[in-house]
Structures are given as C-alpha cells and as structure tokens.
User: Fold histidine kinase from Rhodanobacter aciditrophus.
Amino acid sequence: MNAFDQDVDKELSSPKGLHWYHWVVIFLSLMLTFGAYYISEKQVQLKMESQFEFQSQQIIELVKERMVRYEEALRAGTAALKMLPTSATRDDWRKFEQNLEIDERFPGINGIGVIHYVPPDKLSTYLAWQRETMPEYRTHPEHSVNEYWPITYIEPQDTNLKAVGLDMAHENNRYTAAKKARDTGEASITAPITLVQDDQRTPGFLFYVPWYDTRRYPEYGSDDNDFMGLVYAPFIMNKLMDGTLENANRLINFSIHDKETLLYTELNSNSNDLDADPLFTRTETLELYGRPWRFNLQTTTVFREQQSHTQPYTILVGGLIIDSLLLAIFLILARSNRNAVAYANRVTDRLKQRNDELEFMSDSLKEKNQNLEEANAELDQFAFVASHDLKAPLRGIQQLATWVEEDSGELLPEDTKGHLTLMKSRIARLERLLDDLLAYSRVGRKDGEQEIIKPKDLTLDVFNLLNHEGKFELSGDMDNREIKIFSTPFELVMRNLISNSMKHHDKETGHIKVSISVDSNWASVEVSDDGPGIPEEHQEKVFELFHTLKPRDKVEGSGLGLSLIKKVLERFGCDYKMQKNDKGGLSFFFTWPVELVKMDDVDK
Assistant:
C-alpha cells in the first residue's frame, strides 16, 4: 500500500465530531444574540426614561402655567382699580370678583383681594372710610412697624372673613414679600405661611401684584410716590394642587419644598398609585416669583404597569432558538460525516477484498468490476440524499431569521439588521451550494435521452434566461442545423459557461461571443467574454472543487461551476481548454459528440 492510500485510510478511519470553527460560529452567534438583547433592553430603558422626563417636565410646566394665569387675574384687579373714577368700594370689588368667575376659571385659588398701603397719619381716616360699609372693621393684630398693610377687601368674603383687616406688617414672610413687590414693581409670592382662614393649618402662601396710581387718595396710599397697595390671592397648597393636577391615574407623583419647608407632597402612603420602589426619580428647582420651589418627582405604579419589557426577551429567546438550531445542524452534519466515513470504510474494505480476490480469481474480474460500479453508484446516491436532506433545516433557519426581522425590525440597531441580512445571504449561498452539489452528483447517473435540437436556438434560450436584466450582449457565428445529442448535459455546460462570464464580469455591461460549428461527429464550441479573464497560473486550479479566485464573500457562485463542466465533458470524452483572448477576457473551447440529422430522419 502506497503513502497516499495510507493517508486516505487514516482519514477515513478517524471520523471527528464538531471542529473548532463550528464552536467559533456558535460562540459568535450567542454573542450576537446577547448583544441584540442588551441593545434592545437599553432602548426600552431609554424610552422609559424619555417618557419620565417628558411627564416630569409637563407637571412643572403645568404648575408654572397655572401661576402665570393667577398673575393675570391679579393684574386684571389692578387694572380694574385704576379704571374706577373714585376709590373702589366693597361692592365694586365684589362685582369684579363675580365677573371674574374665579371658581370656574381659576380653580385652586382661595380668593382675590385688595391690600391698601396706609401710612400712620392716614390710619384713622382709612378706618372711618371702611366702617361706613363694615362697622366692625378693624386692623389686626397689633405690631411695632410704623406703617400698615391691611387686607381691605377679599372675595368671596364669607370663606375668607377671618382675613379681613389682617395687617401684612405683623408677620415677616408676608411683610417681606409685600415690600419686595412694592420696591421691584413685579409680582411676588411669600415664603410658606399658614392662612388664618385655613382650619386645617396646612402650608400656603400669598401671591402679590403691586398697584400704582398717580391719583392721591385721602384714605390710603403714600403722598410721596404712586404706590397704593397690592392686589393679592391667598393659596392653600393642597387646594392649589388639586385644582391644577388631580392625583388620579397619573404617571408621576411629586412633592414641592420651599427651601426646606414642605409645601405639598404625594410621596406618602396615602397617595394614589404610590410606587415604593420607583423606576425613575428626579429633582428640579423652579424659581417662581422670587421663591425657590424644589420639585421631587418619581414614577407611579401606573407608569410601571404601562411599560413593556417583552421585546428584549423575545429577541433573546428567538436568538437562543436559532443558536440551538445551528448547533443541531452542526451535530447532524457531524453525524452525517461519521456515517459517510463509516460507509466509505465499509465500501473500501469491500473494494480491498475484491482487489485481493481479483489477484487470485481473474475469471471473476468482470463481476467484481460490476460490483465496484454499483458501490460508486451507491456513494453517488448517498451524496445526493445527504445534500437533499440538508435543505430542510436551512429553510427552518431562514424562516426563523425572517420572523426575528419582522417582529423586531423597528427596535434592532443597524448593526444587528446587517448581521441578519448577512445570515440570510449565507443561508442562500449554502442552498446554491447544495443545488450545485446535487447537480455534480447527478453527472454520469442520468444523461437523459438523445434529442434533436438546434444549437443556436438552444444557446439563445439559455442566454436570454440568464440575461434577465439585459446587461449583456450576445454575438457569434452559430450553426443552427438540427443535430441529435444528449441535450440536458450539453445545456448544463452552456448555461454554466455563460453564467460564469456574467457573474465574474468586472463591468456593469459586457459582450459575450459564442461560436458553434458542426461536422458529422463533433460540434466545436467557443464561448468568449470581455471580462477580467483568469491568469494562466490559475487556469488549472479553477477546475478544482470549491475553488474561487476571489474571497467567498465577494462572489455569487459556489466554486463548483467549472468542476461540473469538467466532469460532464470528461464523461462524454470531450476535449476542452481555456485561454486568454484578444479582448483581455477568457475563451473556453470544447467539443461535443453529435449526430447530424438528415431531412428524411426528420420526416420520420
């Protein structure tokens, strides 16, 4: 036994399981699956965070917008005071409040009133003026400040009666904000206070807008400047928030602090939809009419229930299923390889036994040759069945990849979409490879029946079928006399030669030339193109199985085209060669056995 036979025996007797590159593919596929899951999870997280930021900002903007509306109501009060020809009376202010419809148009407000600025020298005149319409009117409580800022009017008066006559100068937070409004001419709010009309003693504040008038009134106002007093509104914080944002089925709960003083909170056990472990929290400070209001915001249980986390897990489960199918395919291939090797070993043992018998039994040589041909036919049949059966799991992987792309297309990043496209293209290439393997295994098994054809017509049909995009032109001198040949293998050779000229062309358009001449026994065929050609040093190698001149990812074919042509031509005893032509492309020459058809044969 020579060295080659020993190597073959060693290879056939040592079937292997999965190779290292199989495990690399599985590992990379797992990495891709977990990468897609991680990216999808991040996208869901970013989407939730963006929604939280939007909802939080919307709450802050609603509070800010509501305070602007209240300021507009107060400024409407200052305009009304200026329009009256004389000092506004209690009845005048009541009519203004009724027309303003604060209960309907300004929910959350506790009332709207007038604070007059009264210097010490006008206090007695001011009190006499007010007691004309309200005999029991008095300013309270007593204080040491040498000026007075009493609440003269407040509507609705019934619910705010305790505030009538209350002097802002008696308490620092009220007095400080009042002087700030007077000195700046801008609206201001007080630090947190407790309103006298609030029996619940909850946090509140006063909202001031200064009132100026060039007219001088004997009952109130400074004689040194135009400042007359304030139009104001008292607010109980809980009532304000209920009128602004109803705490029901909201995505966000929040609290408000003025510096360290709590004004309002929904972050306690009594709050609706409180989430003890919120998904997101946020703190933002809003400068509002001279006071820093700090908002602490967090998501509610309603927010948590609206979020969907199924998409990342769908991607993860789908990817793991695909990875499992890949592993199953590799195991099937490995088992098929082991079965093929075992079968080949059995056939080889039989061949060795037959060869030994041939040495001693020359009279049975014919019978043993026949057995050898049967064994080869069985090997071809096994290759045919094995290649055909591999298409089923490939179609399953293709379908799963399509489902993943359809279900997750909007969430997957561009890199992951590219990987899915690459997977589908690799599967399509493997299917083409299996088709070519099937065609290769069929050569010599079934040549079909001899048929009468016209070479030119057959060539034109093949070219038009392959040139469906119309990028190539065909010319050449082709004999079109009727001949009798095995048309199926001849058409297979022509189709592969023309297809190779198109697939490996380096320009968008090209020209293919086909020449066919026929004599009594043989047809001579030449197929030429103006493509890049094949260097002479590679012209023998291209006939090897799976050999390509470019990397596999840059060519469409399987590397079996010229191997298939070679096998068919050798099957029919044809001569063939290839060489560079005068256009820089490639010319392929071959002969084919034919039988010219006479006219009387056609009639028959």
